[in-house]
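Give me C-alpha cells for this 196-residue protein.
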Amino acid sequence: MSLRSGLLGLLGLAAGLPAAAVPVTFGISPNSTDIGFAIDILGLTTASGEFRQFSGSLTLDLDHPEISTVSIRIDTNSASMGWEPAEAMVVGESYLDVEHYPEIRFTSHLVTITGKGRVKMEGMLTLRGISHWESFDAELVNRSFDSDRKLDRFEFAAVGTVHRSDYQMEGGQSFLDDRVTFTIKTRLLLSPAPTP
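Here you go.
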C-alpha cells in the first residue's frame, strides 16, 4: 500500500515550509489522492491498477513532523485494472479476497525526515487480516501558487514495496513477483504563510 498521500509525502512539507502554530488535519479522498499498485510478470512486463475508493485523515504538524500521523482505509473491492479478467483475479480468494477482507488499513507510527522535502513514514499495514510493519518513502515533487484560489498548491509522491507472501497472498507464484509496489500521489492546497 498510500500504501502512499503522495499521501505519505505530505509530511515532506516540514522540510520546506514555515512552521505552523498548530497541527492541521486534512481529509484523504479520491478527489485529491491517487493510490496505485503494480507487480512484475515474469520479468517481462508490469501489471498495474488503482484503488478507486478509500478514506482517511492526515494530521500534519510542521513544527514537529515526527508526531504527524496518517490513517487510511482502502476498499479492496474498488481495485481497478482496466481489464475485467485481471480485476476478477485480484479481488478473488487467492489475492485480496474481498469477500472476507473488505479493506486494507494503514496507520503510521513513525516519521523520519530523510532529506529536503523527503520523509520516511513507517507504520502498521493490515491486509487480508494480517498486520506487518511497512515503510513508504515520500517526496514533495512540485510546489506552485494557485492564483484563482490564492492558495499554495503542493504535489507529493510516495512509494512503498510490500511482499505478498507476508500476507498469505500466494496466488500466481509461478509468474508473479512476490513484491507489490504501491504508489501514492496527492495534491494539497494550503493558505500561504503570513509575511513576518
